[in-house]
Amino acid sequence: MTEKVPARHDRREFLSRSAAAIAIPTVISASALGLGATVAPSDRITIGMIGIGRQARAYNLPWFLKSAQTQVVAVCDVDSWRLKNAVEMARQSSGTVASHADFRNLLDDASIDAVMISTPDHSHVPLSIAALRNGKDVCCEKPITKCIAEGRRLVEEVASNKRVFRVDSEARFKTSFCKAAEVVRNGRIGTLVSVEVGVPKDNASCGVPETMPVPEGLDYDTWLGPAQEAPYTVNRVHPHQAYSRPGWMRVQEYDDGMITNWGAHLIDIAHWGADLERTGPLRVEGKGLFPENELWNVLQQFEINYEYANGLKMTVKPVSGHHVRFVGEEGWVEAGFSQVRASSPKVLEVPLGKDRIRLPRKDEKQDFIDCVKSRARPIADAEVGHRTNSIGLLGVIAVKTGEPLSWDPDMERFVDNDEANKLLKRPMRKPWEQWS
């Protein structure tokens, strides 16, 4: 039976109120109708966009503007230039769009059903929890967490607030990845022995840039959010009045680099094919480099090895390009975002019989909207996203401690290692509750 998330409102309450209505707007939110998210397909879900940087402008905002099932009614960003551009872009499709510099004002708007969070990684969990507690369903950019303890808290908040949460990772929608995972799940390479996850290389450096004045129109304190106090420099945040790759993606305080960035896509596929998407390894060991005397100090040149309860071994490391390679006793299959190949053509000939395992393949945002309406569990929910991201974070901790670690995937604690367990949380200049 498909797990259901309770709707927010009772339909009977809506019907008792609706007779007094004089006029109904052309577009009205599901929550305003009193129907929660169990609405007819013709009713559009109202969306608030939090964070309108490179990813949101190129992919997330256009999708919600184009969909006949959604209406973007509010946008929010701490950068006034980006906010202005987003408003202009949204109004061309949606008409009137509210503009917010403070995410709290957007979340206070009861007419908004769901939010798309496209901010830097370090603010994903605090913003998501604030949205959940304000009755919003949440679609959040990957990687969804900055530390393992926060990931577990997010999963609990989704459940206690009875909301829909979807990780905005498109990997499962790609034909190549779905094909490879189905090949493995249907036994076409025999018993799975190992998985290699190859993420792209990123060894960029910028030294220690000089402190700069905060640009006019940027609320830098809110951008920092729960992170540690730090002087402004453009390579710490994002390019001024541009949408090129932001520097924060290479700074440990806000991101963990390729192991969680691209790892959020590729490790997810590794877990999907191995049928391990709601658990974790028993052992982790790794080596790598954290650049010294560098602002851009995320993990580089690493190789992390994991072992699971069923004996499966997984390796995550940088490569030229990217891939997920499944190796079984009878062959192998390897996939990237646009291709799939195997040890022999017959491996890819997945049988079509009734007993074939068929994995769900759906656009990530469409999956989210469908679940907002049906209250079903998304293909990649908070638990899946948390477990995927935990793999990268475990690798970071293994390199920092410099020793093999034993991990309890049920308790989500290292076994007999207090120093490693201290790294399950992150230091913050103020608690996320105080910030949000």
Number of strands: 15
Sequence of secondary-structure elements: HHEHEHEHEHEHEHEHHEEEEEEHHEEHH
- What class would the helix/strand composition place it in? alpha/beta
What's the alpha carbon Rg, rounded to whole Å? Answer: 22 Å
CATH architectural category of the largest domain: 2-Layer Sandwich
Reading off the top of the CATH hierarchy, the class of the largest domain is best stated as Alpha Beta
The chain-level mean pLDDT equals 91
Silhouette: globular
Uncertain stretches of 5 or more adjacent residues: 8-29, 31-42
The rounded distance between the terminal residues' Cα atoms is: 36 Å
Strand content: 15-25%
Number of domains: 2
Largest sheet: 9 strands, mixed
Care to describe what's here?
The chain contains 14 helices and 15 strands. The chain is of the alpha/beta class and 436 residues long. The protein has two domains: 11-170, Rossmann fold (3-Layer(aba) Sandwich); 172-203 and 256-361 and 382-435, Dihydrodipicolinate Reductase, domain 2 (2-Layer Sandwich). Helix 7 links the parallel strand 5 (137-141) and strand 6 (165-168). It is globular, with a radius of gyration of 22 Å.
Provide tags for this entry.
single chain; alpha/beta; globular; Rossmann fold; 31% helix; Dihydrodipicolinate Reductase, domain 2; 14 helices
In a nutshell, what does this entry contain?
This protein is α/β, with parallel strands linked by helices and 436 residues long. The protein has 14 helices and 15 strands.
